[in-house]
Batch of 2 targets.
Target 1
Amino acid sequence: MRIGFLGGTGEEGRGLALRFAAAGASVLLGSRSAERAGIAADQYNMTLGRSLIRGTSNTDMLATSEIVYLTVPFDQVVPAVLANRGDLRPDLILVDVSVPLLFREGRPEYVDQVEGSNAEALAQHIPQEIQLVGAFKTIPAHVLSDIDTPLFCDVFLCSDNGPALARVAQSVRLIPSLRPLDAGPLRAARILERMTVLAINLNKRYKKRGARFRVEGI
Amino acid sequence: MRIGFLGGTGEEGRGLALRFAAAGASVLLGSRSAERAGIAADQYNMTLGRSLIRGTSNTDMLATSEIVYLTVPFDQVVPAVLANRGDLRPDLILVDVSVPLLFREGRPEYVDQVEGSNAEALAQHIPQEIQLVGAFKTIPAHVLSDIDTPLFCDVFLCSDNGPALARVAQSVRLIPSLRPLDAGPLRAARILERMTVLAINLNKRYKKRGARFRVEGI
């Protein structure tokens, strides 16, 4: 399974790239500068102790990936996708992991979106034939990037495209101790994005860092 | 611990009353008609096999309870509280468990509230000195009322009143396999109420009935 990252040098991208590579996926880091992507890939491979991740240009990454994670800050997702619009193939699956959050007096606040959620806002900006899936929204980036810690939690997926959701679910199952759950249509992102605020509040209250969700009874 | 129910004859009230009574709390069902409350209490005591629950008038229930659960339909919470306004003592803790949901074409939808959540709407209608806590919002009523099934999940509490939240948390700990978690201020109800939509969507997708949440890492 070929998994690409548009903006894979932040904490979320790093965590997902490392975990997918360690699980046997073919991982491509994309960047405007192929050289910068190569440097990040080298660092990640050092962490892994094996050369499993390759850095390249966004154009090359988008041409050869099947599933592409958009791992840029939440307000950069739409610009980053639009900047690469010419390279989006119709059979590509884009995965939005973003959460629109701001901290006010030390407390996380969800930034209300006119469209309902960041995922729905993105959906309005990409060509209709591109398949869009929301995923990993409720798992904090620093938890993902601490790759020695098993996750033991659920990954909620949402999409208006059933086959795309199922394919992303398959990829999630590669990573040990993660369970993909079909949370419904893309508009479920309204709930998933807000759950991150709850996770951060729980971390603050209990002086922990790793709050994440599991569903009992499914 | 004396726990009262304003409107305890629905599924949510039934489940909570039975579980609290079985856990050793002193449970009072309140109703406009003391007689009707008595009939419901008799039925619940039959289920329990012991006479642990008492039915009485709302006035009596509010005079003698320490924590009062508002277990009426979501759009009846404010009217039910206002109807009993004269009997609200300042040291009373009211617990809002409501979730504003409607089903459209078989799909649950969160009914957006001007105030942000049903809990916040209620806060604007009760005297400021009344202590208000949101709780049990993410656990489906039919899961609560199936008292032979251990819950094994977390109860998220939210309140702008720390001591009231802590007291409700103490009461939640009476019930085996439930863990109370401090989810932050009352506005966290915006997240918790929406999580119920996610739970219902998961139940529909996976043909289950008992989806409920646990937090890993806390």
Note: Chain B has a mean pLDDT of 95.
Target 2
Amino acid sequence: MDYQLEYISRYFEKISKKKIETYVVTRIWHLLNDSEVLIVPQQYVKRLESYALTDLYLPQIGFHVEINEPAHYNNIERESLDNLRSEELRRNTTHKVFHIDCRGSLNDINRETDKCIAIIKDEIADKRRANNFKPWQDESEISYHQKRGMLKAEENPSLRTISDICALFDAKVPIRGFLRKGVVNYKDMMIWWPSIGNKNFQNILSEDDNQIIEYSTNEKKRIPHIYAVKSDSRKRVTFFRGTDNLGFTAYKFKGIYELDTESTSIEKGLAWRRIANEISI
Amino acid sequence: MDYQLEYISRYFEKISKKKIETYVVTRIWHLLNDSEVLIVPQQYVKRLESYALTDLYLPQIGFHVEINEPAHYNNIERESLDNLRSEELRRNTTHKVFHIDCRGSLNDINRETDKCIAIIKDEIADKRRANNFKPWQDESEISYHQKRGMLKAEENPSLRTISDICALFDAKVPIRGFLRKGVVNYKDMMIWWPSIGNKNFQNILSEDDNQIIEYSTNEKKRIPHIYAVKSDSRKRVTFFRGTDNLGFTAYKFKGIYELDTESTSIEKGLAWRRIANEISI
């Protein structure tokens, strides 16, 4: 199954218990009818002090869709809380939020959804005209970044595999298997793809992404590891490994980090401090 | 939730574990974009000696869709068996069968599905032009039949509730609750809606629909019931109660039946023989 089909199928399956959401999301997808447009379920949005969750998000145009099932309107408190949340989202970002009212019949919901689809199509057409639209195409992820010559952390560039990362930087792909290293050489730096943890390491990314603490959980290797890194403290182009909302692995570009020797200690581990949010390729 | 939305949502939910089928069915539904068109999952089709099952059926135009997942093509035996089945279906009925090849990418599957959708749209347009298209609209089910003035068993007319049956024949709706009778008077006949069984009765419909055996499972009432019916042996306009593929109750018109006193016995029960396949309203 190709990646796009797998992705969309997983999305539909993930929400299949929510009947109206499934109806509306499948409608948006099929009537947009544009395989260059990415739809993302349940997007976390940073709020002032917490996170908000929208039902569907179109990252290429910064557009959120809230699918309001009938129950949404039965609770005035909940309704006004949701509206407040949308307001805040609009105020704090350049994002747009569209609410689809799903209280009516099938034909009513079709009409409401189609209004939303028309707006999305317009936004995409505008971006395409301005030559500012990054198509969702698996194969072109790498070539898109290469053509652009730049990765910016604020745009959340995300790659699917270590091979993709290496291809982007024209770096040697590390050997697979348990001997695989967690870094490859790149110019005078290294490319690094830490994950939250594996059986040897624990990596903690700070909330603001400005620091990563790398900690060896293997007691015997902890001290030699710190000394080894200190003696070869090249900067690291860093992709933090995580999973997206559908459970796919995603290596998210975070920036360039350098060793912060002052904050590093045997007890705490290696402290990496972000020194750049972007990199030219 | 209105009936159409409930129906389509249940359909999507029912197939949600089959990822490619969900993708294709939701696409067909949304791109047909016509709430007068009914789609039915997993339709049983009578074959010479058994039943075949197609993935999606459009009863208004006698059109079947087979959604062939990649695995379908891995097994030559299975593939040729399926083709044979489709051939037989085409030969024995006026039905059409379209196979969607789902081996390709998302864009390939979109293209294959869209070919199918184009044909379906043509077929529907033809039927509409010929004034021979019965729209799928819950409210109009009754008015459609009334306007037509005729029920034909071969067309599988199906109503959703006893109230709908009574509305169609302008008959008195029986009182709800456990005192509700299983029949209402209609002209010199009765309208009857037997089910396979409840705590008092067992009703067996023959394979060819030509006979119904009505059997009281209450030993004390069995003999009096037979005598009571024999003394009031009005013909019965019969809707056999069942469930459709999505679990909705469906009262399917089968024809007019009269008591076959020769085949009736205390041991066997009341035998009803079909004497007409249609009725004027």
Note: Residues 106-129 of chain A form the longest helix (24 residues).
